[in-house]
Write a structure and sequence with these properties.
By secondary structure, this protein is α+β, with helices and mostly antiparallel strands. The protein has helices at 60-68, 96-117, 140-147, 165-174, 189-193, 206-210, 216-221, 303-332, 349-361, 382-390, and strands spanning 20-24, 30-39, 44-51, 53-56, 87-90, 127-131, 155-160, 198-204, 225-231, 237-246, 254-256, 273-277, 282-287, 298-300, 339-344, 399-406, 410-418.
Amino acid sequence: MSDEIVTEGVIPFFEQPAVEVDKISIGNGIPMGMERISSPALGIGGVYGTWGDAYSNENLTEFLEQRLGYPLPADEKLNLAPLGFVYRHHIPELSAEEDLELEVEVGARLLKSAAQACGWQPQEVEAVMIGMSGPVADDYVARIADRAGISQDALVVSVHKACDSSMGALQIALNPDLQENNSPLGRNYARLLEGKKVLVGGIEGLSRFMNRSHDTNALQLFGNGAGVIGVIPGKTMKFLVGKAHEVFDDKGVLAVRMYYPYRGHQPSGRSLVEVTEENPRQIRVAGKMHEPENNESVEMSGPMGMVKLFVRSGVQVVSDVYQAYRQRLDELGESSKSIATVIVHHANYKINKLKATQLAKGGIELPMPWVLSEFGNVSAASNMIAFLRNLSSMRPGDHIMFDGFGAGTYYDVFAVELGGA
């Protein structure tokens, strides 16, 4: 990762040549753009995109002042370019019914396009696993799977661990030793899904979510975004080593409202992530959050607070997984191999740069490319977008590390080997 991020000349997402743009007939019409990515050599494909109007760093303030209902104080305006962000996408205020219809349509289009990118028909998909910070409906994943034409027999899994949600979902699909795969439900999803066609992603309607917040830092950083990939666990993506970690955010440095069912009946000393079966088809994985004291959706301490929250523990988790990875290579007799790239959550560039610097001081040099300047912080979608944007450079046999982290505070870090079609 270079010392300085280059944000000049970034082209708005909807204007990029490979992006398919359409308008969804909600309200006065909501633009949506998607780009499909496929790697026949790897047998992996997917789609990423966003919806809503694009707001640049220059015209964002006017939009936020309309949403806030008062001028944005000068001392609260963030310098967003050094954080890696140039554009982000927002929708106008809609009714609850319109929000639901919009995001179900967005999700269904993403699932159908992701299946197509893999060369699959929707009815061939055997599981859909979607991470999101604040779902528009409790049964959102089932709704989008049904609208996309996915079989009623397919497993649907919702994961709610804030920005870590999509990485939590992907590790559940791959790592049989994960706690979520050894829950009281008695179903090990990694073993259940091995060899099956699985769609995994993050779909984040953060413009709707942020409409319930007056936190000016959050309003400037976050926007809509989504990414969904298709994998066959054990074939096109093979688990090597990994770790899930949690450090509860007692101080509420990044407080997030839980707009999802969470019973909180965990035994003392157990994880704050609970796995529940809504019905035999629908599973929910929900993490406890430090919620705002008022009715706000998000309250955050600012970019430096996020650095303190995520970097120290994040560096330790990545270091632990890297050491386990080196040991695993020794066991496999492949000690000459190395991590080709790290797909890291794009919280902001300064967080990622500091993590890379701290890891390097410990003798761990890892490539952590930044590729999300057109979206803002899109929470659980960012790892998936970053993966798809790097997919063309990946080859069968490559080792990839995923680094997810989010409010709560939750971490999912794991290494995989890419297989082939």
